[in-house]
Amino acid sequence: MNAMVPAVVLTAAACAMTGVVAGLIADMFGRRTMALLLVASGLASASAAGIWRLWSGPSVPEVGVFVAGGGHTSLASLMYALAAASVVAGVGTLRARERGVAMAALVALGAVLSHALLATTDVMVLFIALSGLAVIGYALTAGRGTERSIAAAVRYLVQGVIASGLTVYGLAIVFGLSGGAPDLLAARETLAQAPTAPALAGMALVLAALAFKLGAFPFHSWVPDVYGEADRASVAFLGSVPKVAVVVALLVLLRGTAFASGGFAVASQVVIVLALGSLVFGSFGMLRERSVARLLGYSAIAQVGYALLGVGSGDAGIVATTIFVVTYAVAVAAAFVGLEAIGAQDPRWDGSLAGLAGLGRRAPVTAAAMTAVIMSLTGMPLFAGFWGKLHVILALVGAGRTGVAVVAVLAAVVSFGGYGAVVRAMYFEDAAHEDLAVRSSRTMSGSGYAVVVLVALAVALVALGVVPLVSGVARVYAVFSL
Amino acid sequence: MTLASLIVIPLVGAALCVAARRSPYAVRTISLASTLVTLATTAAVWSVYADLGQPIVAGGGTDSPFGFVTLLADGLAIPLVALCAVLSLVAVLAAWGSEREPTHIALLLTLEAALMMVFLAADLVLFYVAWEAVLIPMFFLIGGWGHEGRRRAAMKFFLYTFAGSALMLVGLILLARAAGGETSMNDIVVLLTAGSQRAVFWLLAAGLMVKVPVWPLHTWLPDAHVEAPTSGSIMLAGVLLKMGGYGMLRLLTRYTPAALDEAGPVLAALGVVGIAYGAAMALGQSDLKRLVAYSSVSHMGFVVLGIATGTAMGYEGAVLAMVSHGLVAAALFFLVGAVYDRAHTREMSRLGPLGATLPRWSGAFVFCALASLGLPGLSGFPGEFAVVLSALPVLGGWIAVVGLGILLAGAYNLRAVGAVVYGGERPADATVRWPDLGAREIVVLAILCAGIVALGLWPRLIGDLASGTLEALAAATGAVR
Question: Mean pLDDT across the stretch B3-9?
Fold first, then answer.
């Protein structure tokens, strides 16, 4: 049984990579749509492989450098599924790009690296996965090919390299203190007894690097640029899958160290400060944005704040953080798939809020699905996002941080000023002067892919919002407990 | 199962309305059928409760397969459930013939389901979910079907009430934690310390007071009520505001009795200020709909005052006042909507004199204005009278302020009647002749006016139903004194 465990990670990676190879071969024969769908089906089968092993038991940390089983497997399945969704949704855009299939292949590789990051217990693997994801983020952002997207990508890369440097220093300290054991799980035992000051320094450096990857305050400045300039379908991947992996890596990293010993209680304080800063900057930043993608970029900063609040809330926060990050990942992927769908249905859309006017009548299905996504991001009940935010607040109150909980719920209210603007534009504003018939006749071929994916994800968000109400949340815990 | 059907039937109706959106006839039949069946089910629940005298419970228990879905109908819930069922029927009838009618009606039915869930929820999680769920259809109703300022009003409504309920969520979580993670309302036994009880009380009260709305948290109300379509105003004033009073009676009296007792004078003062302030503002309006909106602030002040007394009589008065205001405000908003459909203005000076041209409308308006000012024999009187009686020992000389509010209520209602029915500047020989109330409008008003008369002549209709539950709640508050 135990010997089989690493095979789960490898099986998924193998499925994804087979899809990539098949896709690249199809691309050589000029069958671009088929190539993209092959990459997506590779990712889908990786997800299915995980689901097949979903109930294989609790996490098994002893074997190899990867953990599998239980929550890790469910999270990995989710990540592959979202990666597949972003590729399928992007078919319309990607097949028009010269290197479209290569970009899809990068998404698949990114999914595998995210899985590695999620499941690893090894310091080296952690570092390689983080660096690899940084390069993939750079390439996907620049892949749109516009001057602004390349500028955003370069800015992202430069900041990312600095973060990688910090990671190396931080991990070196952790590595040294743990007596050279590369295994994180072993390291955290020794770390708990290590001298406080250097251990704290190492932790601070690693924390800074991960905060950068997450786009948390004060390392958030790249987020709106990348979200605003990259291909929408690429952001559907970049904004969701690596985020799940980094949050879980952070949890694994801090779980045995930050919360086990008194000296590291400081780390959780730092995390809470980062979280509150992200909440405030993100929520208020949303209010003045007129570009929907940049607005969602600021929203991503705020949402990371919630994830970090969960991370900083001790043991009760582990399940809360996992549930939150799952609901957020699905919602943010759906949001950018939705933008892809809107853009594909109306290629002249400039990405602005004002350009959404009248969408409720022009494209009722897309608009309704987008509304569900927005409501989930806000954290309204009956949508998945509610349970995520609820559990974070529960964990905060449980940790005795009621004041922080009040700030967190009020930040959600502020954020509706931004989210509500999207709904308001779609339903309450009338399209100014455009001839609707002309607009809808210009629908790009391939928009159907994005719409189907959007609707599927929106249905998932509603189902995840309603089912726990009837079934109780215990079963949800069971699926995602790490 | 009967209780669940009160939520499920409107939802099914909403789904069918969307499915049958191509046929206006089918949509109207479905909407009428689902609201009438809900109303009949409510009547059945009412009579079962009246016979048994025991709360009706559905779902629940530790090994329940339904998770958080547990429902309860008692003497506090049933009057409001009945109000919701009646006003949903009225609102649906008011929405007939509107633009994008199927979606409009589907949203109203969804709203009905969410409101039913608020009043029936016997679990804190379900209660909060329902509480927030109410916002979504209402947001779209205001924003999609409202008047000129609808976009701003919809956002303002959502943000204000969301801010209140977000704080309420923290209060609910603190409460559930103190109860050891128990969320079923009946199983929660908490003995909170004075300090934590105060924190829970004010967090919960924040959300409830925004909804009522208690002065000075009322500023969202005039905009939302004025900009909402007629159907939305009916539901907003008639049912949504009652969520606040209901929540106070359901949560604050039971779980934070000491803090409620302690905060009694503050709540009473806010209620009294609301009564006088709302009435004074109503007197100053020239827009008929805004006048009715401000009168809601005044009437809901009585509800808060009744709850602040902590006595069974005050609670009964509050429930009676809520049901009465629901009927009267709905009728007034319906009448304002009817005249707006014809005149396309709500400025009182440009409407009248309507007495000669729209005799049926004018008759109904005078009747509802009299009910609103609290004429004995109509529904406005018994509830507010009971509140004033129960508040007398608490308020002492300050009761004069309430008296001022009552006087002002007479003034603004009669001023409106004077301006719209008898006075005004519209030349009597104006070229456009407006048709008087049609059959649909008369049916709606007949339902509401019958309720107003019935409750005015026989307040024990609600009083007997609610008294058992309310006395138990008052005993809980009184025990800490």
Answer: 90
